[in-house]
Amino acid sequence: MAIMKQKPVIKYLTDFLDYLEIEKGLSDNTQKNYTRFLNKFFKWLSDNKFDGIKPLDISPALVWKYRVFLSRHMDPRSKKPLKKSTQNYYLIALRSLLEYFAEKDIKSLPNSKIKLARDRGDKEVKFLKLEQIERLLLAPDIKNKIGLRDRVILETLFSTGLRVAELVSLNLDQIKIHNTTKELEVAIVGKGEKIRTVYFSERTIEWLKKYLEKRTDVDPALFINYKPGSGENDQSRRLTTKSIEDIVKKYVKIAGLPIMATPHTLRHSYATDLLSEGVDLRLVQEFLGHRNISTTQIYTHVTNKQLKDVHKKFHSGKKLKN
């Protein structure tokens, strides 16, 4: 069977982006990131006189040279070599391009041949302890509608582990509760257009009831802006991701917490709390909406610490004779 005539690798970029949008369902921002990461590879090919290289010509030796380049490349901002995690972004983009070639029967190097850089440093995950969470939740003044809304936002972030973009996209018609409701689960479309179910705790449901009782407007958004002028010209008063970040920052300061927590810190805290209670890592992966278990493994600091403490407490060897 004749091999399909191949174009230079760079000529496949547009088709690859269409593939990401149509078959992978990735957002415009994600496509822009892939373009940026692949342009690094294309520029490296050009600088090394490999402009006309075709998919069939991509070899382990070529990939190795590119990896060496990335490891020695200086970050223009920090003036330091690229972090391992940053190097991996470029390698993952290249690996995805090879996956596209395989999907379209364009003969090239298998994407499994792209090995990621090993980061030997532990990725630090910042999270709040339960007593700090409690101080944060108690910080808003619930006597006014803004404080009540903010309390519900904080409760929801910790109860569900939602990303900020997922939180701001929630609508009133998704929150189906009445006076006797004790359970609430909501289907959301998360990162990468992945659908998952999030669960609200009983205490969060109670706060939602109080908040919704005070809502007299018809805006479809669950969390809205109460500032004067918002919602004029029939525009939605939906809070933005920046607004949520500012709200969390405000109450972190009021609560006097020692770290500058963000909405994502509450997501970390949510995952940490589940793991500390013995929830299996793969279930936590589902709760968080992670596509790969490797992303969830950043939280194993919790289970690792527990293992150490259990070993120290119960395996001291005191019953053994000298």
Could you give the topology of this structure?
Layout: H1 13-22, H2 28-47, H3 60-72, H4 84-103, H5 130-137, H6 145-160, H7 164-168, E1 184-189, E2 195-200, H8 202-213, H9 241-255, H10 263-276, H11 281-288, H12 293-296, H13 300-314
Antiparallel strand pairs: 1-2
Helix pairs in contact: 1-2, 2-4, 5-9, 6-8, 6-10, 10-11
Characterise the protein shown here:
This protein folds into two domains: about 10-115, DNA polymerase, domain 1 (Orthogonal Bundle), CATH 1.10.150; about 130-310, Intergrase catalytic core (hpI Integrase, Chain A, Orthogonal Bundle). The chain contains 13 helices and two strands, in the order αααααααββαααααα. The protein has helices spanning about 15-20, 30-45, 60-70, 85-105, 130-135, 145-160, 165-170, 200-215, 240-255, 265-275, 280-290, 295, 300-315; strands at about 185-190, 195-200. A two-stranded antiparallel ribbon has the order 1-2. β1 (about 185-190) and β2 form a beta hairpin.
